[in-house]
Write a structure and sequence with these properties.
Length: 251
C-alpha cells in the first residue's frame, strides 16, 4: 500500500488497541473502519481508481477528521463536534452494530462534505469533467464498501452483536438496506459539499455558519438514531443522510 495509507492504518491500529484495552465501545466503529481502510488500500494498489493519488489523499484526509474527533473526545468530550459527542457517548450496552451505525452517520454526514471541500479547489467544483471523474471513483469506493457489508456483519456478530431468529432471517434484507442507505447518503453528501463550497467562496464567516448548520443537522440525525425503536424502519422513512438547504432557504 502507499505510505500515507500505511501510516493511517498504523494510527488506527494504535487507537484501536487503546480502545480495546479500555473496553470502549468506540472500538466497534474503529475496527470496522480499519478493516474497510485496508480494503480501500488494496483497491488502490490493484489500480481500481482512475485518480489513485487523489483517492489516497482524500481517504487519509477523511479518516483524519474522525480520528481527530475521537482523540479530542478521549481528552475532553466537550471538545469533539456534537455528532461525535453523541456517538461516542452512547450507552456502552448498545449492541456493536448500533455503535457502528452511529459512527457511520456522524462520519458520513458531518465529516465527508468537509473533507470534499478541503480536498477540492473551488475551480474544480465548476468543472463538469472533474465531477464526472470524481463520481466514477466515488462509485468505486461504494463498491468496496458494499463488498464489506456481509463480512462486517459477521465481525459484529462475533463481537457480541445481538441476533434473534428474526434478525438472522432479515440479515440479507438488512445488508441490502445498508447498501441503499450508503448510496442515498452519499448523494446528499455531494450536494452538501456543494453548499459548503458556495459558502467558502463568500468567506470564512459564511463557511463557519453553514458548517455549524451541517453539524446541528448531523447531530439531530444521530440523536434520532439513539431513540428506542426499530432503527432500520426510521432510516427507511427518513433516509440515512441529512440535507443542507440552499443558503437563501435558511435566511
Amino acid at each position: 500500500m502507499t505510505a500515507p495509507v500505511d501510516e493511517l492504518i498504523a494510527r488506527m491500529q494504535d487507537l484501536l488497541d487503546d480502545l480495546t484495552a479500555d473496553g470502549d465501545p468506540a472500538r466497534h466503529f474503529l475496527g470496522t473502519y480499519l478493516r474497510t481502510t485496508v480494503a480501500v488500500g488494496a483497491a488502490i494498489d490493484a489500480g481500481r481508481f482512475e485518480d489513485a493519488e487523489w483517492v489516497t489523499a482524500w481517504d487519509v484526509d477523511f479518516a483524519d477528521l474522525y480520528l481527530d474527533a475521537l482523540t479530542a473526545y478521549r481528552r475532553d468530550p466537550a471538545s469533539a463536534p456534537r455528532p461525535w459527542q453523541l456517538a461516542f457517548g452512547a450507552r456502552p450496552d448498545l449492541p456493536p452494530e448500533a455503535h457502528v451505525l452511529l459512527g457511520m452517520n456522524a462520519h458520513i454526514n458531518l465529516d465527508l462534505p468537509q473533507s470534499l471541500v478541503r480536498m477540492v479547489p473551488a475551480a474544480e467544483f465548476d468543472d463538469p469533467a472533474w465531477w464526472e471523474l470524481r463520481r466514477r471513483d466515488h462509485e468505486r469506493i461504494d463498491a468496496v464498501l458494499a463488498s464489506r457489508v456481509a463480512a462486517e456483519d459477521g465481525e459484529l456478530h462475533r463481537a457480541g452483536g445481538r441476533r434473534t431468529r428474526l434478525d438472522r432471517l432479515l440479515a440479507p434484507v438488512n445488508r441490502t438496506a445498508s447498501q441503499v442507505f450508503l448510496r442515498e447518503s452519499r448523494r446528499r453528501v455531494w450536494a452538501n459539499a456543494g453548499q459548503l463550497d458556495l459558502a467558502r467562496r463568500r468567506g470564512p464567516e459564511a463557511y463557519a455558519t453553514r458548517l455549524a448548520e451541517l453539524e446541528a443537522a448531523s447531530a439531530a440525525r444521530v440523536d434520532d438514531l439513539l431513540r428506542p425503536g426499530p432503527v432500520l424502519v426510521r432510516l427507511a422513512v427518513r433516509g440515512f443522510g441529512v440535507t443542507l438547504p440552499p443558503a437563501n432557504a435558511t435566511g
